[in-house]
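Discussion board: Methods & Data

I've been asked by a reviewer to show the raw model output for two of the constructs in my manuscript, not just the figures. I'm not sure how much to include, so I'm pasting the format here to get opinions. Each protein appears as its amino acid sequence followed by a line of discrete structure tokens. Is this the kind of thing reviewers expect to see in a supplement, or should I convert it first? Here is construct A:
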Amino acid sequence: MNFLAHLYLSGDHKKIALGNLIGDMVKGDAWKNYEHDIKTGLLLHRAIDKFTDAHPIFKHTTTLIKPHFNRYAGIVADIYYDHFLAAHWQQYSNRELSVFVQEIYILLIKNYLTLPPHTQRIVPIMILRNWLGTYQSIPHLHQVFLQMHHRTGELGNMNKATEILQQNYSALEADFMGFFRDVQLFSQRKLIELSASPNKIDTPKNSRNTE
């Protein structure tokens, strides 16, 4: 799951959403340094990633696209799934996507000093380019993948990511729809569990490499 999905799966809890958003930037036991709701979000992020990586539908997606993206297939799949979430947003939320996104941007600005340094660096770019509000746009996705291609090079082959998405659109969309039902239910249950007392939850360290 990428930024938009992690935020959506936090429910209506703003500080939990904040923790869920920064989950990849808070390593090891550093989650213990945050306030209760942000801790909950950080641990929810890790639980969602673990659930996602083990899910047979997500594995099907990564298997389908791995010949094109090698070890970056999981990262590309995450972004594809954010695209489908944005494209089908009205099916999952009563709020307009633009309203949801603006609330997140305000949350990030108000809590800027709480954010990890890496997140602080990307927040102005995220807001200026409206990352969260334009995932449904194929041209926007292409620009995102081009930026990633500069970092990963030919091994990642991410300059071809929107082309591969369009070639396999129906199959990838079906994967997302099937998977997202399951991750919604998982996240709802996990959120109840973690909200009770995140300090008592034994959780693994970050399992994903998002660079």
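Construct B, same format:
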Amino acid sequence: MIRYIWQLPDWPNLTFDASLLLATLGELAYAQGIVETLLSQVGVPEKYEFEAQILTKEIHHSHEIEGEHLEQVKLYSSLSRRLHVPNASMKLSGPHIEGVVESLLNALQGSDKPLSHERLFSWHRTLFPQNISGPFPVLAGAYRLDSIDVVEGSFKNQRVLFQAPPAERVLQEMEVFLAWVNAPSRIPNVVRSAIAHLWFLTIHPFEDGNGRMARIISDYVLNQNNTENRVFFSLATRLKIHQNEYYRQLQMAQSDGLECTTWVSWYLSQIVEAQETVIVTIEKTLTIQSWFQQFIFNDRQKAMLERLTTDFYGDLTTQKWAKLSHCSHDTAIRDIKDLIAKGILRQSERGGRSTSYALVL
């Protein structure tokens, strides 16, 4: 009985209807043009810093999807040092952090070099430097030797979502996959990235870490044949936000036949969302740069304005300002009122303890 696409006689000839992707591809090209235009207005140091922030999110959320929490501060520190962000700390962030950062940069900066078994094995070893996944041993830097199922639910009440090809087929499957990745193609990189993501996860060649490896490979294919990092968005962040739908789309694509237009279309929509997020962030950054040129701010205000353009969660209140800035309530009020007078912050219509403030953009 055929249950999965790898069991079909024409596997792995994945197909798609290009005509149904044209509108989304147009959106992607338009958004990419806006991103590049905005980045050209950002100073070189700020561009490096922005790139470090994006890649920090990419690694953090890719691992978070699999239930592993990596400290963003340490990721950012390692990326800042490697990307030559001004005043970056020279202190190493630990072998695991340094390893996963090195793997992603190797994928992006080495996207003009062929993908090989050896490169995949080196990336995989950084995920499990001690050959351990949680409390369990894992075969790191080599393809699996046993069968593998993707399951959900508790140990006593598990449901099989997907069964991967037998272990004895993995090497041959990966040979075909790598030949496809490395072959010249006229298919847009974004579409190839979607197909590579699905194809690799269908093979599921490793004992563990296949999701994280798939997302590194996706970034590699997105940046393929470019001489500099051009993935100025975090796809993994969108996949984390839509994690349940991400799993559902994969499960459908691995069961519904070799025509994968629905999967590719959904994947491209996540890139569109990621690009839109980046556009808003860069616009905020440029706005704040113009404010710094027009006005004089104290250190607390500078720090808060930078927070408000990156990863500030929830509403800005006087209490939150005082806590984050390590200052008194009265000082926080004075700082906020000064920014309101400058036309940078506006007060919400809600009063009393519900009063909050937002940037005027």
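Answer (T.O., handling editor elsewhere):
This is acceptable in a supplement if you add a one-line summary per construct. For B, something like: The domain at 298-359 is CATH 1.10.10.10 (Arc Repressor Mutant, subunit A).
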